[in-house]
């Protein structure tokens, strides 16, 4: 029998974790059991993807991490904050829709979280411009959302999530509505940002290919109520690029992730 870990060892392992969900369940008021029990630990700086059938609770899990929804039971730890974390504190959220304010400029859209946080205007504008530069939109601060392509709007949405310099970036199918070429380009840019900024990323996607390309770990969920079906580490030469996307290793990983997903749609799951 192994010895019980010391409290110092437990503390050290918690320090390395950005997010820890233990036995988390979620039953909505209408009786839908969306989630769990779900156990998930994400290390600081890790890039993981959550993949699973529609309605298995992926968005619910993200919303719980962001304190936008409360779990019905279980424990949620986000970095060192337990229970009393301010909603959204230390967290940036990117949704599938860019949800930009059409009546104002790109800069004002990106500045919004800082305005809500009462950051002085000059500093907020400077930080908004820096966030726009980080997503390749330095020249579009004065533009209006209607003047941007779908991919550019998503970049603005990403800049808005980054402008508060969050430790954790939660992304809920951000590129699902984009064409393949724009999506590939944004995948590469997101990876470059992740490498340079060192954020923890939890990325929800329906795409096996996207999850394998982007992530260090692909977490496959079962049908509703969502639990962990498989947790696969993607090990490859970094930084990833087109050589990886066209490699045998990439297609092997895609095959393994697809196989892990198969019970969700082949009738063997508890859906
Ligand atoms: N506010 C809510 N009230 C009641 N039921 C909800 C609510 N939000 C989500 N649900 C239900 O919970 C389940 C999980 O929803 P969720 O959006 O988390 O799944 P998902 O895996 O993100 O789905 P998709 O991949 O289709 O976006 C679904 O059955 C959904 O109908």
How would you portray this structure in words?
- There is one protein chain.
- With 271 residues, this protein is α/β, with parallel strands linked by helices.
- It has helices spanning 7-15, 58-65, 106-116, 121-134, 150-162, 180-197, 208-214, 242-245, 248-265, and strands at residues 17-27, 33-43, 47-51, 73-78, 81-82, 91-94, 168-172, 200-205, 217-221, 228-233.
- Strand 7 (168-172), helix 6 (180-197) and strand 8 (200-205) form a beta-alpha-beta unit.
- Helix 3 runs parallel beside helix 5 and helix 4 (121-134) crosses helix 5 (150-162).
- The two termini are 37 Å apart.
- Adenosine-5'-triphosphate binds at residues 28, 30, 32, 34, 52, 54-60, 224.
Write the layout of secondary structure elements.
Layout: H1 7-15, E1 17-27, E2 33-43, E3 47-51, H2 58-65, E4 73-78, E5 81-82, E6 91-94, H3 106-116, H4 121-134, H5 150-162, E7 168-172, H6 180-197, E8 200-205, H7 208-214, E9 217-221, E10 228-233, H8 242-245, H9 248-265
Helix pairs in contact: 3-4, 3-5, 4-5, 7-9
The structure holds adenosine-5'-triphosphate.
């Amino acid at each position: 029998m192994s010895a019980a870990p010391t409290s110092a060892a437990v503390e050290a392992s918690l320090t390395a974790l950005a997010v820890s969900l233990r036995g988390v369940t979620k039953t909505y008021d209408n009786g839908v059991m969306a989630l769990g029990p779900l156990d998930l630990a994400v290390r600081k700086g890790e890039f993981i993807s959550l993949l699973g059938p529609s309605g298995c609770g992926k968005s619910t899990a993200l919303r719980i991490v962001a304190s936008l929804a409360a779990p019905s039971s279980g424990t949620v730890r986000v970095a060192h904050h337990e229970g009393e974390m301010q909603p959204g504190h230390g967290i940036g959220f990117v949704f599938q829709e860019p949800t930009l304010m059409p009546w104002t400029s790109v800069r004002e859209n990106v500045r919004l979280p800082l305005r809500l946080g009462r950051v002085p205007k000059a500093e907020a504008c400077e930080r908004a411009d820096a966030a726009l530069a980080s997503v390749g939109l330095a020249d579009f601060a004065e533009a209006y959302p209607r003047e941007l392509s779908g991919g550019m709007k998503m970049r603005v949405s990403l800049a808005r999530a980054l402008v508060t310099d969050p430790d954790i970036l939660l992304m809920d199918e951000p590129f699902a509505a984009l064409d393949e070429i724009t999506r590939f380009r944004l995948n590469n840019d997101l990876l470059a940002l992740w490498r340079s900024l060192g954020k923890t990323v939890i990325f929800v996607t329906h795409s096996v290919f996207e999850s394998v390309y982007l992530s260090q770990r692909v977490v496959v969920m079962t049908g509703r109520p969502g639990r962990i079906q498989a947790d696969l580490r993607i090990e490859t030469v970094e930084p990833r690029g087109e050589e990886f996307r066209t490699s045998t290793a990439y297609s092997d990983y895609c095959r393994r992730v697809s196989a892990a997903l198969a019970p969700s749609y082949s009738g063997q799951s508890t859906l």
